[in-house]
# Entry
Amino acid sequence: MIKQVRDNYAAPVIEKEIRDYWDSQDAYKKTKEYRKDGKRFYFVDGPPYTSGHVHMGTALNKTIKDILIRYWRMNGYNVRDQPGFDMHGLPIEVQMEKKISVPGRVNRDGKPDEVGIRNKKEIEEIVGIDTFVNSCRQHALSLRADMTQEFKDLGVWMDWDNPYQTITNEYIESAWWTMQRADEQGLLSKSGRVVSWCPRCETALAENELEYWDETDPSVMVKFPLVDEPSTSLLIWTTTPWTLPANLAVAAHPDMTYAKIVLTDDKNAHEAVICMESQAEYVMKKGGFTKFTVIKRYTGKELEGMRYIPPFQIDRKYLHGDRLFTVVTADYVEQDNTGLVHTAPGFGPDDFETGKRYGLDPFCPVGESGRYTEEFPEMEGRKVKTVNEDVIKLLDVKGILYNSEKVKHRYGHCWRCKTPIIYRNTVQWFLMVPKVKDKMLEEIDRVKWVPDWAGSTREKNWVEGARDWCISRQRYWGIPIPVWECKCGERKVVGQIAELKEGHGYMEGMDIHRPWIDSITFKCPKCGGTMSRTKDILDVWFDSGVAAWASLGYPANKKEFETWWPCRFIVEAHDQTRGWFYSQLGAGVMSFGRSPYDEVMMHAWVLDTKGQKMSKSLGNVVAPQEVASEFGADAMRLYSIRANAPWDDTCFQWDVKKNPPMKEGPKNAWKVLNTFWNVVKFASMYMEIDNFDPEKYTPAAMKQYLRYEDLWMFSRTEKMKASVHDGIESRELHKAARAIEEYIMEDLSKWYVKLIRDRSWTEDEDSQNDKLASYCTLYYAIMQTAMVMAPFTPHISEEIYQHMGGKMLTVHMEDWPLPNVSYIANGIEDNMKIIQELVEIIATERAKMGSKLRWPLKQISIIGRSGSKDAVKMFEDVLKQQGNVKSVEYLTPDKMPNDKEPCKFSDGQVIIDFDVTPEIEAEGYARELVRRIQQMRKDMKLNVEEFVDIQVKADATLLGYFESWKQFVAGEVRAKSIEFTDSPAGEEVKNWDVSGKDITIGISKL
Ligand SMILES: [Zn+2]
Ligand SMILES: [Zn+2]
# Structure
C-alpha cells in the first residue's frame, strides 16, 4: 500500500520518528540476524577516545563506516560491526584530578583548599589510587554512554549494546598476551633513556603526545674557561640555562673549523673565546665587540679532549665518567650560534647518546615533579622552568655570562595539561620496533591502501623512521605493564590472567587495574626472592593497537577469533598514520607476524570554513548535533560525504558567526533531499489516489505501454546505480553521493516528473495504461534511489521506502540493487540529450524575446544532421510539450530560409518562429488562467482529486478565448463547471492582473 508522504520534509522530526521505528521494531538486530548466514566480514572500529562528545571528524568517520557497513550488509555480508571505545589514559586522569577533593589540604593562610588534586603524591597518599582509579572508570563509562547516544542520533547502526572497551579485564588480558609475545622475541627492553616528560602529570610522554607552539625562552651564551689556559673560554649557547648544572661536556662538529679569536671593543676591552669560525662575526656582535682577530684554527676533531671548567661545581660523588668536562664531537652540531653545544646527557636525547659514546653517565638532578633535587643544592626544591633567571644571575656573578637575550621558538607541551615538557633521564620500558621494521614494511606492501599513497608513501615513511617505542607511563588509569621483577634481575611477563593464580594475592574475578594488581607478587624461580610488578602502566596508544584481537577476546576466546580473524577493513583519519595504523601494524607483526588488517582506507579532517583546524580555543567548532538539529542527520551525512574525496580535507561550509549566518554546505545537501521528497510527494499522492499496485504493474508487465521517455528514465536510473556502485567499490564515496544528487536534481525532478505531469492527471479511460506506465517507471526510479541512498541517508530512505509500500521491515534489509544492464539504452539517452538541449535553447531565446513560457510558440524549424532527426522523430511530443511549441518541422539544409536568424546547437541549427497568432494568444491566456486557478486551489488547500465550480469575469476578447479552451481548462483544474459572469462568486474570489488584463476568478469546492 502506497501512502502519501507528509507535505514538508521536516528532517529532524522525521528522523526521530524513524529511529523510534527502528527501536520499536528492533530493526538493527533483525537486519543483522537476516544476514547471519552470509559471508563473514570482519570490520574493526578504530576506537574514539571517550571525550564525551562526537566532533565533526568523528562524525565523518562514523558516517563513512556506517555507509560501508550498510552497503556490505545489503550485499549479503554478515558484518561484524562492534564499536570500540578508547577509555584509559591521561585525558580522563586530568579531568578527575580537577574534580576530586583532597581532604584536609589548606592554603598558605591555613584556610581549607581542598578542590582538585595537585600532584601524584596526593593521589597516592591522601586520595588513594583505588579511589582515583574507580572514579576514572565511572567517568569513562558515563562519557561512553553520552557518545553512544550521539552516534545513534546520527543514524549510525553499530552493535551499541556490545562495544569493546579497553578497560575490561578481557581486553587488558589481550594486551598482556601481546606484551608476552614481544618479550619472547626479545623485543621488550627496559633501559635508562632521556624521554619527554610532563612535570605536572609526572610521566613520560611519547612524541605523538606532544603539542607544539611558540614559547619565549632565554637565549644565552656562556663561557667555559679552559683548564690549561683560563684566559680563553669555550663559548657555548643554550635556551635552557636550567640544564647547565648538569653540563658534562661540550660538543663540536668533528669536521667543522673552529677558531680561537680575540675580541675587542672601542674601549679596548678584550676577550678570548673559541667558537666555530663561520660564527665569529655573529659572536662578536652578540658580545658588543667591534673587532675580532683569529689567533688559531682547529678542526672540531682537534678540539676533542680539551678540558674546561664547568659552570657549576657539583659534588663529584654524583658524577661518573673519565671524560667529564671535555670537548666531545657529534655530527648533529650545526653551523649556528656559537657552533659549540652544551651537553647535558641527563636532559637531552642527543646529549644522552653522545654521553653514552663517551662513557658519561647521565646526571639528572631533577625529580619527577620537575624540581631540583639535593644533587643541585643551590636550587633544591625549585621548579626548573622558574629558575632560568636566577641561573643567569649566578652565571653573571661568576663572570662567565657572555650574552643574554630572549628567543621565540617552537616548544613541546603535554597534550593533556598543556604544560611545557622537559627532557629527563629516566628508566622506561621500550618495544624495539626497529627490529621488526622490515617485516612491517613488507606488510605495508601487502595491505591494500586507499588511496594508494597512504601506504606506499605516508605509512612507509613513518615506519622507515621508526624508533624504539617508549610504552611505559608513570600513571594510574591504564593497562598495567604485566612485568614482575626480582632484585636478582629475573623478570616475568604475564600473558594471561590464569598465570596470576600462581602468584601471591590473586583473587578470583579481581579487577586487574592498579592498585589491585600491584599487590600480587611471585616467588623468584632463580633466587627464591619476591618478584613485584613494575609500577608503570602502558602508553594508551598501545591499548588500541591490539584492538583487532582484543575485541575478539583473544587468546581467551579462540572460537570468536577463528570465526572472524583477520580484519578485512579499517578506516580512520590521516593522523593515524603515526597512531592506530602504526600501533596495530607493530603489535600485529610482533604477535602474529602479520598486519592485523588487509585494507586501510584513510580519510581526511573536517576543518572550519577558512581551512583552519576546529578547536575550542579558536572558537570555530561546529558540533554535528547543531547541524543535524537544523537540517537533519541525513543532510549532515550527505554533505560531509559529497563535499570532497574522503582523503581530502573539507572546509565545512557553516559559519554562524557570519552575518547573515552561513550554512551553505548542509543546506544544499538538504535541498537535494527536499527535492527528492517533493518528487516522492507527487508520486505518492497520485499513486495513493489511484491505488496503484506496483506488484501488478511491474516494468515487465507494462513493457508494451512504456513510452520512450519512460525507457529513458529506466536507462538513467541504471546508470546512476552503476555510478553509485562503482563509487562505493573504489571508496570514492563522494562520486557515489554526487551521482545520486545529480540524478535526483537533473533527471528525476527537473525532467522526468515534468514530462509525466499530464499523464498522471488524466482520467481518460483510454489513457489508463499510459498513466500506469508512467507510475511504474516513476515507482521504480524512486524505490531504486531509496535503496542506493539507504547507506548514505538512512532515515529519509526508510521513510520513503515505507510510504512507497516497501516489503521488508526496513529498507536496510533490502539486497543491494545492482544495475540492470538490459535497461540501459544509450541511443534513447543520446536522443533525449538533443531534445533537452533544444528545450534549453528555446527557453533562452524566449527570455531574450520577452516571450512568456506559458505562451506557445508557433513553430520551430530544425536543420541538423541525422542525430537530431532521430531525436525529433522519437521525442517530438516531448519537444513540443517541454518547449511549448505548436509544431516542429525538420528541414534539409537546402531548405534553409534566408530571412530568419538561426540558433546553433550541437547537431545543427534551429529557427524559432515567435509570431503570435490569435490562436496562440487564446491558448496563452487559457494557460495563464489555469495557473491562477491552480494557485487558488493550493491556497484553499484542496486535495488534487477534489472537484470545483469556477466562475470567471474578464473582457470580451478573453472570454472568447476561454470559451474555446473551456474543456482544456476544466480538465486541468478539475472543474465540473466553468461559468462566465459579471460578478463571480465562490468560497474564494480573487482579482488577477494577467499581462495588463483584469481577470476575476471565483472558486467553490464541491
Ligand atoms: Zn601533563
Ligand atoms: Zn630473584
About this structure: The mean pLDDT is 95. The radius of gyration is 39 Å.
